Amino acid sequence: xxxxxxxxxxxxxxxxxxxxxxxxxxxxxxxxxxxxxxxxxxxxxxxxxxxxxxxxxxxxxxxxxxxxxxxxxxxxxxxxxxxxxxxxxxxxxxxxxxxxxxxxxxxxxxxxxxxxxxxxxxxxxxxxxxxxxxxxxxxxxxxxxxxxxxxxxxxxxxxxxxxxxxxxxxxxxxxxxxxxxxxxxxxxxxxxxxxxxxxxxxxxxxxxxxxxxxxxxxxxxxxxxxxxxxxxxxxxxxxxxxxxxxxxxxxxxxxxxxxxxxxxxxxxxxx
Length: 271
What we know:
Helix content is 41%, strand content 11%.
């Protein structure tokens, strides 16, 4: 699928997210919009093997974008997106493992998914050793996390463990939109220069424009070739990407668009 096609899908997913959040009058916007290009690649770009690879969403509040991607990829009816956060819905405000096909991890506490993904990757490694067969491709875990999660200690403990166990079947993708619920990340936390710190922990680190589909896809493919340690793809993105009045504004982390704002946003996205 071409980058142009993936871009169209990403904007379609953005539109789905905005309509879901508006209908529910609750949910998160900035992160799902910033990561839409990534989810377009993961579910429609041919980089993930859906028969054996796993996609883990650690930042559970991003779940509207994963729900939209799963629905558009045929995991469940698109019409069901309208039930987001409703009583009895299979699409809660934070994902629950098994609620619908494709949700691998229950998420809520930030950073927890990183640890779970690390355990999954270790399990795959151990299974591969037990049933060693050079003709069988080793499955991978793709873990999406947000930069706010880097403030959680268990994330760094998981990185340390994953490096120690040489989990090169584990690919982290950091949606680095630099905003969180109260303000810009830089105004709330100081954890040093991100890339340098990740490298100091022993991860393979790749950095790119996370809203450029061509560049991001190339980096994910490159991550699949790296050995001896897990790889972190630092995807520099813009919170609220695709909607001019939402871009790079912390207020839109979890703000619900009005009817007029929704209509304007959908028009900008051409969906």
